[in-house]
Amino acid sequence: MKYSDSEIIKAIVAGDDRQVLKYMYDTYFPRMRKFILKNSGDGDSALDVFQDSMVVFYKYLMDGKFDNRYEVGAFLFAVGKNIWYNKVQRDSRNVTLHDNADFMDEGSGVMDYLISRERENAVKTQKYKCMQKLIEIVQATPELKSSLKELYS
Prior knowledge:
By secondary structure, the chain is mostly helical. 78% of the residues lie in helices and 0% in strands.
């Protein structure tokens, strides 16, 4: 049986994901395996990376962070590719990574999206910290506190 992206998402969120997981493995794993094998990996590494990508996908779904505008397969591949690049870098292998267009067709937009979301979150966090510090300063300075009360009353 073939599943659409929305059917995959609904099944996972509902916890009825047994058949969907098999479908996802059969459909999305071969592309990731091909990429990792071409970039000095092996079958076990490909499976590990795919499983890690699935965990990230599940987390995004459960946290409400997954944007339905992106294809599930492209998201998984982009995350997996990023995981593999990080692993290669950590292992300090002397490897030439092949970043061919046939691997990048759908995933590049997803990575751009993920990077922009992380940046947005970092900016929001910094804004929050600044606001907290400003509140502390205002509360610690009686003349500021009374001036603000007069201004906004």
